[in-house]
C-alpha cells in the first residue's frame, strides 16, 4: 500500500518540478520529503500483518486453556466462552507429550438436544466463542483464522464443528468453515492417532472482516453424539493487522506538504 502511495506522490511532485524548472529545485525536494514522511506516517500501521490473538491449549488446569496466550497491541481478546457445552477437558494425542494438550468440549445433553447437522447445532446453541475488540481509535483487518482439531476418545462416531461469525450472521448460509470425522475433506482425526488436522479459513477477501472498529466474534458450533465424545482444539490463531488512527503530527505533515505544492503552483501561474 505504501509503495503505491509513494509512487503516486513522487509522480505528482516530479510533474510539478518539471512545470516549475525556473524555481529552485531544493524547494521541491523539501516538498517531496515532507509528503513522503507524511505518507509513511499515515500508513505505517497497515504494513504488517501479524498474529492478533493466539490460544495454546497446553495450560493447566483445563480452565486456564480459555485464556489467550498472545494478544497483539491495540486490541483485547476475550476468553473462550462455552454455551450449552460441558466443562472443558484436556486431551492428548496417542504417544504424544502430555504437555501438548488440546481443549475439548462436548454437548451438554441436559441443556441442549444432540444436533444432527448445522441447523440443529444452531437451534441447540451449542458452541464456544471468542471476541476481538480493537482499542478506541483503531480498527482490525483480519486475514486468516486457523486451528488444529482432533476428536477425543475412539471412534467411529460422527462429530463436527461449524465456524460462524457475527459479521456474516449465525445462519446455515453464512458458514465460514466446517470439519467432520466421517465425511468431507480433510477429516477430523481421532486422538488415537499421532497427528491432528490443521483447519484454516481465508478472511482477507471478505470486506466484512476488514476495517473492524467495533468488535468481531467467532462461534464454533459443535456436534457430538454423547457427552463423553468430544472435539479438541489447539493453536487457535487469528492473523491480521491493527490499524491505528492517524497521528495528528502525520496529518500536519501532509497538510504542510500540500500547502507547499499549492504555493508552488500559484507562483508558477503568476510568473
Tell me, what's the shape? globular
**Element-level helix/strand string:** HHEEEEEEHEEEEEEEH
CATH architecture of the largest domain: Sandwich
What CATH calls the topology of the largest domain is Jelly Rolls
Instruction: Output the structural class.
Output: alpha+beta
Mind telling me the CATH class of the largest domain?
Answer: Mainly Beta
Number of helices: 4
Total beta strand runs: 13
How would you characterize the overall build of this protein?
- This protein is of the alpha+beta class and 271 residues long.
- The chain folds into two domains: 2-45 and 247-270; 48-243, Jelly Rolls.
- Helices cover 25% and strands 29% of the residues.
- It is built from four helices and 13 strands.
- Strands 1, 2, 5, 6, 8, 11 and 13 form a seven-stranded antiparallel sheet that branches.
- Helix 1 packs antiparallel against helix 2 and helix 2 runs antiparallel to helix 4 (248-270).
- It is globular and about 75 Å long.
Secondary-structure blueprint:
Elements: H1 2-19, H2 25-43, E1 50-55, E2 70-71, E3 75-77, E4 81-83, E5 89-91, E6 102-105, H3 118-124, E7 127-134, E8 139-151, E9 160-165, E10 177-180, E11 197-202, E12 216-223, E13 231-243, H4 248-270
Antiparallel strand pairs: 1-2, 1-13, 3-7, 4-7, 5-6, 6-13, 7-12, 8-11, 8-13, 9-10, 9-12
Helix pairs in contact: 1-2, 2-4
Q: Key features?
A:
disordered N terminus, 271 residues, 7-stranded antiparallel beta sheet, 6-stranded antiparallel beta sheet, 2 domains, 13 strands, 25% helix, Jelly Rolls, alpha+beta, 4 helices
How would you summarize what this structure contains?
This protein has four helices and 13 strands. The protein has 271 residues and is an alpha+beta fold.
Amino acid at each position: 500500500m505504501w509503495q503505491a502511495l509513494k509512487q503516486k506522490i513522487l509522480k505528482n511532485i516530479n510533474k510539478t518540478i518539471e512545470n516549475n524548472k525556473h524555481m529552485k529545485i531544493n524547494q521541491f525536494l523539501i516538498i517531496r520529503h515532507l509528503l513522503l514522511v507524511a505518507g509513511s506516517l499515515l500508513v505505517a500501521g497497515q504494513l504488517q500483518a501479524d498474529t492478533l490473538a493466539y490460544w495454546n491449549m497446553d495450560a493447566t488446569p483445563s480452565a486456564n486453556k480459555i485464556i489467550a496466550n498472545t494478544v497483539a497491541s491495540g486490541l483485547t481478546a476475550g476468553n473462550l466462552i462455552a454455551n450449552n457445552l460441558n466443562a472443558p477437558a484436556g486431551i492428548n494425542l496417542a504417544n504424544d507429550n502430555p504437555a501438548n494438550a488440546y481443549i475439548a468440549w462436548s454437548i451438554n445433553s441436559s441443556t441442549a438436544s444432540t444436533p444432527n447437522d448445522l441447523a440443529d447445532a444452531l437451534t441447540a446453541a451449542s458452541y464456544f466463542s471468542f471476541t476481538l475488540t480493537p482499542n478506541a481509535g483503531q480498527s482490525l483487518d483480519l486475514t486468516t483464522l486457523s486451528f488444529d482439531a482432533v476428536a477425543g476418545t475412539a471412534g467411529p462416531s460422527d462429530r463436527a464443528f461449524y465456524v460462524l461469525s457475527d459479521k456474516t450472521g449465525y445462519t446455515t448460509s453464512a458458514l465460514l468453515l466446517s470439519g467432520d470425522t466421517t465425511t468431507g475433506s480433510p477429516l477430523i482425526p481421532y486422538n488415537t492417532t499421532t497427528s491432528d488436522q490443521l483447519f484454516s479459513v481465508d478472511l482477507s477477501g471478505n470486506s466484512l472482516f476488514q476495517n473492524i472498529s467495533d468488535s468481531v466474534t467467532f462461534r464454533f458450533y459443535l456436534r457430538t453424539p454423547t457427552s463423553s465424545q468430544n472435539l479438541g482444539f489447539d493453536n487457535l490463531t487469528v492473523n491480521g493487522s491493527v490499524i491505528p488512527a492517524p497521528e495528528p503530527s502525520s496529518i500536519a505533515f501532509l497538510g504542510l506538504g500540500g500547502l507547499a505544492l499549492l504555493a508552488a503552483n500559484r507562483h508558477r501561474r503568476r510568473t
